[in-house]
Amino acid sequence: MYDYNVKQFGAAGDGETLDQYALQRAIDTCSEAGGGTVYVPRGTYVTGTLMLRSNVHLHLGMQAVIRASSDMSLYPPVGYEAYTNPPRATYILLLAREVSNCRITGEGEINGGGTEDLWFPENRLVPMRIGTLLFTGCSGVRVDGITIRHSDSWTLHVQQCEDVMISRVAIRNNRNRINTDGIGIDGSRNVQISDCNIESGDDSIVFKSIDGFACENVTVSGCVLRSRCQAIKFGTESEGPIRNVTIANCVVHDSTIGLSLYLKDGGPYENLVFSNLIIHAAFKFPFLIDITPRYYQSSKPVSIRNIVFDNIILTGPGRIFIEGTAEHPVENITFNNFTNSMTGEEEDFSQMTKATGTSRCDADPDAFNYAAQPYQFVAAHVRGLYINGMTFRKDNPDVAILDRGLLYLSHIEDGYARNINHNPLQSGIAPVQQDHCRNWRLE
Q: Considering the entire predicted model, what is its pTM?
């Protein structure tokens, strides 16, 4: 038995009537009575911004749809986007600010209205874009079972929250609409994400620490991800640490970049474990770890350390890329049982450059371009590189000869590679090239 049915508060659910005020009255009444369940039955409920409250469980019944209104006057600004100049206001469909014990569950749907294609540079010209769900400064957040379609901007944003569980959520965004990130975890702790199915026009799951708050103690498991941009991304905004994260038993398919760690703003990335992942990605660098200060003339101390990749299958035309800096190398990175299936050949390695992860970056124009090296695994400035079983294979039985070398290693200190398996190489290609390496051995 549900405590509060939105129909009892005057909601029409006919897809035409503005139901914002009826829905908000139901939520507020429930909260003022000490909490309970607000039930949204079958129907389409048009609304602007709804404020979620403490101890309120919003349950969407089968075929219930909360749909964003196209009337922009119904969305008050709730803050400003990070790092935009001039600052651009943010707008949200469902907003929870400093609440506790807030739940959204059910078999129903939230529709953000972002159906049309929107890519660079047109996205910068749109004066207002509506994010779907924002939890900021909250504790005890639960999101389970719902479907979110056509978010106009960020879909499910968890900002500076604690004790969060997101499970069995389906996100279906327009792949040709930029900035429609799936789940964003920003400066939050004690977060569990499981069994979600995400299709996004930007990053599917992204970790950030924009305002310096630590993003820590996070698990992701059993998810299926498809992204026009990056399926699993760390950064680029990282003023605080991102640490103690495990991502396991997930599938990435039909994506541009499968997994990336971009460190630009100073906060360390540490104690990260990635296990049992299947990744299909089409970009030239689908698997990337990079320390590049955002502004090279005023760089901050940075570090990426204690990273484990275990039982990974990577498929696509691109290569694995790892780069630290001379002052701040990547530290203690381990690969166990890593399989790289190559689906194509590169035309000109010399013209390649690594991805920056953002347009807001002033990189050193005189830096050495490690991305131009004709090798499948490129690593530079790493202290502690341990490879325990890595297979390079051509995913084409008719052309089984590799057109590139296996390992390019520059400024590597400490570590080893064991059990490297591969298809035959083209004549004249050195399998391994080492430059300025110390205490590192191929066994």
A: 0.96
